[in-house]
């Protein structure tokens, strides 16, 4: 069985997002053990210079990296990453399983994105779109997609 971790900067504050997360975690339970780990986001002033913004990303990045299992396959959700279809991602899950890499972590960065160290550690950089989404909403979109990937991989109805 797969072990999937959603590693996210920030927590879900809105009740409807927490409910959406709970629903997809329930749906995913028959396909994988899914764990959500939240790390604190770093507050910052809007007028912070670029060097200060980098420090914010570094602090959040260190929090993310400290929570990774050493052998996990890390997928960083990054607007500069590669775009793939849902069918392609279902295929990647299958390839990882065949390679004995059933421990997969999906990282969702904070408002400013990822530090260089997180990007360097990532095994895959995945972009869902060139558009920017709030990181709390991105968590729900990701969970829905993971559920969709498993349905596709199992040949079960849902993804059309």
Describe the protein in words.
The structure is a single chain. This protein has helices at 15-28, 50-66, 86-98, 116-121, 135-154; strands spanning 2-9, 32-39, 73-83, 103-108, 124-127. Strands 2-1-4-3-5 form a 5-stranded parallel β-sheet. The protein has one domain (5-154): 3-Layer(aba) Sandwich (Alpha/beta knot). The longest helix is centred in the C-terminal third of the chain and has 20 residues, at 135-154. The chain has 160 residues and is an alpha/beta fold. It contains 5 helices and 5 strands; from the N terminus they run βαβαβαβαβα.
Question: At the first level of CATH, what is the class?
Answer: Alpha Beta
CATH topology: Alpha/beta knot
Shape: globular
Outline the low-pLDDT stretches.
none
Q: Please give the count of helices.
A: 5
Distance between the termini: 25 Å
The total of beta strands comes to 5
Biggest sheet: strands, sense, closure? 5 strands, parallel
Enumerate the strands of the largest sheet in spatial order, edge to edge or round the barrel. 2-1-4-3-5
Helix-strand makeup class: alpha/beta
In total, the number of domains comes to 1
Helix content: 40-55%
CATH superfamily: SPOUT methyltransferase, trefoil knot domain
Radius of gyration: 16 Å
């Amino acid at each position: 069985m797969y072990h999937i971790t959603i590693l996210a900067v920030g927590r879900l504050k809105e009740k409807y997002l927490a409910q959406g997360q709970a629903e997809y975690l329930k749906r995913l339970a028959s396909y994988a053990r899914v764990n959500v780990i939240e790390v604190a986001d770093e507050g910052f002033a809007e007028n912070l210079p670029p060097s200060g913004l980098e420090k914010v990303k570094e602090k959040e990045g260190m929090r993310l990296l400290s929570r990774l299992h050493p052998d996990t396959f890390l997928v960083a959700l990054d607007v500069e990453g590669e775009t793939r279809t849902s069918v392609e991602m279902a295929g990647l899950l299958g390839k990882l399983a065949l390679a004995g890499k059933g421990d997969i972590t999906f990282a969702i960065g904070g408002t400013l994105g990822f530090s260089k160290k997180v990007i360097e550690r990532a095994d895959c950089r995945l972009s869902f779109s060139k558009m920017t989404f709030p990181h709390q909403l991105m968590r729900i979109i990701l969970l829905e997609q993971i559920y969709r990937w498993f349905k596709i991989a199992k040949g079960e109805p849902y993804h059309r």
